[in-house]
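Thread amino acids onto this structure.
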């Protein structure tokens, strides 16, 4: 595993040092990070189209990162992936993720988003990256709770359409040699293991389909995030190191009562302030030979982002595990061969 790294999306701003790639990488490096994950929708960081077309521009971006002592870990297209599939109930809310020329035009917005993902596949390849993070979007999310009773075939039809939209994108990522890692996240049709499996089957078990593992979203769903690693470790190619807590009361639980983040029983926290068992997570990832980046994502409802970022690098570094290359008891190896083994077992 590699790190510590930081996802830049929540830190970008219009004032220094958060207003440009060059400035923010220097800021992150000074905090102890060695990698940055880039949100491709934020033009203050990069120009996605230029990344997909220009090797010179890609070299410039990599050079700026290197000058700050950083590597580019992955690109992220979360807000663009969201627009690949939008239920009509969310049209107005999600129009804000797209350029004005496709507002109030869901088909044009979807086509634009798909094209952006195709650019992201080329950009990832041009930067020499092997994984990319995104959201799946959602057609079925309004029907997450089975009341009113869902009509037969509704969910199957939703996943059939979702796969239809994503397969050309998945093909592009496969051609680029890049894993497309879906962050399993409430609000997306891919939000837990069952829905991931539905999509995987609907998309013909496409080889490019992988997982961005983020335990915070499992805490808020009360999903066993350690068991999830045991089940899906072969798919996990990206990791957001993000904390959360869930404190239900007699008045509110998983659904949160339409409250704001700070008042919800389930809320995100800065690293070390929540309930996630990172010792066990890092141990399991090491057990399964996770070779990707460990990337801080900050979304705390309480702590200032700059404090969370400052605390994040040493937290990740302290939890990363360099897997041993030999057994602890190798010193006691008696050097017995197979013939002796047979003798011990009474076979000769």
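Threaded sequence (348 positions):
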């Amino acid at each position: 595993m590699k790190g510590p790294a930081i996802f830049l999306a929540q830190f970008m701003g219009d004032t220094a040092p958060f207003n440009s790639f060059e400035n923010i990488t220097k800021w992150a490096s000074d905090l102890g990070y060695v990698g940055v994950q880039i949100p491709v929708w934020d033009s203050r960081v990069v120009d996605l189209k230029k990344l997909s077309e220009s090797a010179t521009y890609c070299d410039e971006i990599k050079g700026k990162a290197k000058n700050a002592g950083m590597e580019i870990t992955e690109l992220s297209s979360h807000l663009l992936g969201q627009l690949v599939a939008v239920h009509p109930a969310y049209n107005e809310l999600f129009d804000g993720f797209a350029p004005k020329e496709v507002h109030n035009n869901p088909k044009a917005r979807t086509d634009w988003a798909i094209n952006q993902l195709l650019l992201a596949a080329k950009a990832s390849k041009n930067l020499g990256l092997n994984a990319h993070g995104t959201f799946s979007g959602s057609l079925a999310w309004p029907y997450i709770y089975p009341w009113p009773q869902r009509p037969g075939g509704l969910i199957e039809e939703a996943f059939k359409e979702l796969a239809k939209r994503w397969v050309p994108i998945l093909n592009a990522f496969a051609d680029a040699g890049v894993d497309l890692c879906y962050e399993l996240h409430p609000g997306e049709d891919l939000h837990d293991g069952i829905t991931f499996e539905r999509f995987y089957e609907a998309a013909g078990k496409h080889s490019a389909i992988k997982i961005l593992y983020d335990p915070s979203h499992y805490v808020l769903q009360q999903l066993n995030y350690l068991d999830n690693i045991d089940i899906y470790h072969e798919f996990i190619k990206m990791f957001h190191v993000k904390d959360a807590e869930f404190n239900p009361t007699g008045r509110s639980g998983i659904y949160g009562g339409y409250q704001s983040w700070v008042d919800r029983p389930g809320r995100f926290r800065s690293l070390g302030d929540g309930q996630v068992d990172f010792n066990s997570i890092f141990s399991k990832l090491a057990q399964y030979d996770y070779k990707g980046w460990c990337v801080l994502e900050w979304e705390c409802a309480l702590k200032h982002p700059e404090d969370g970022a400052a605390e994040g690098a040493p937290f990740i570094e302290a939890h990363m595990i360099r897997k041993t290359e030999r057994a602890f008891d190798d010193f006691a190896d008696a050097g017995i061969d197979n013939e002796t083994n047979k003798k011990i077992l009474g076979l000769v």
